[in-house]
Amino acid sequence: MATTGADLLRTAVAEFLEETKLTKKTKTLAAYSTSLDYFAESCPKQYLEDIERRDLLRFAAFLRDEKEQAPRSCWNKFSNVMSFLKVNGIRGLVKKTDWPRYTEEEPEIYEQEELDTLFKACDDQERLWFEFFLMTGVREQGVMYAYWSDVNIKHATVRVSHKSDRAWTPKAYKEREIPIPSNLVESLAAVGLLFNDLLPSR
């Protein structure tokens, strides 16, 4: 979707978001929309050809100081705007050192005592869901779009697969099969009818 330098910034943004809506997931569209809205707030330029390095430096500072975004959020939104500019043929405005910086945080680890407290407070259905999350390692949307047909009790596996009827694709577009421990297999087998009600069969 390359545009000419004289194109209005707002027109280019609208076209970019329209294409994103057609080709990406809803969360991706929302992330780009927010990033470009913030960029429009921080940058008074009307034309793509007028955008320069200083505008992007101001944008990074705007995210940090005005919007009080966390370092990782600053980087993500800056990256989204850079992707938008790249699609429109605008490259090389910033140096690597101009990008917002963040420290990759270690994921929070729950101790067994905390898990025991959580499971103690769950009813049977809630416990099954949390066990499924814990013992498969599947992300939120992977569980949301799981079907009963993805669960193979006999082979003790769960499949993360594309769902064309839900317009959902696994992360990185890679389907995979995950082995599950015997205690989760037993839980699923014991409440198979209930689980079949909770998850679509196809």
Structure description:
By secondary structure, the chain is mainly α. The chain has two domains: 9-98, DNA polymerase, domain 1, CATH 1.10.150; 112-198, Orthogonal Bundle (hpI Integrase, Chain A), CATH 1.10.443.10. Helix content is 52%, strand content 5%. The chain has nine helices and three strands; from the N terminus they run αααααααβββαα. It has helices at residues 9-23, 26-42, 53-65, 71-87, 112-120, 124-136, 140-144, 182-190, 192-198; strands spanning 151-152, 157-160, 176-179. A three-stranded antiparallel β-sheet has the order 1-2-3, with no helix packed on it. Helix 1 (9-23) runs antiparallel to helix 2 and helix 2 crosses helix 4 (71-87). The longest helix has 17 residues, at 26-42. The protein is elongated and about 65 Å long. 18% of the residues are buried.
Helix content: 40-55%
Sequence of strands across the biggest β-sheet:
1-2-3
Kindly report the CATH topology of the largest domain: DNA polymerase, domain 1
Question: How many domains?
Answer: 2
The residue-averaged pLDDT reads 88
Query: In percent, how much strand structure appears in the residues?
Result: under 5%
Write the layout of secondary structure elements.
Layout: H1 9-23, H2 26-42, H3 53-65, H4 71-87, H5 112-120, H6 124-136, H7 140-144, E1 151-152, E2 157-160, E3 176-179, H8 182-190, H9 192-198
Antiparallel strand pairs: 1-2, 2-3
Helix pairs in contact: 1-2, 2-4, 3-4
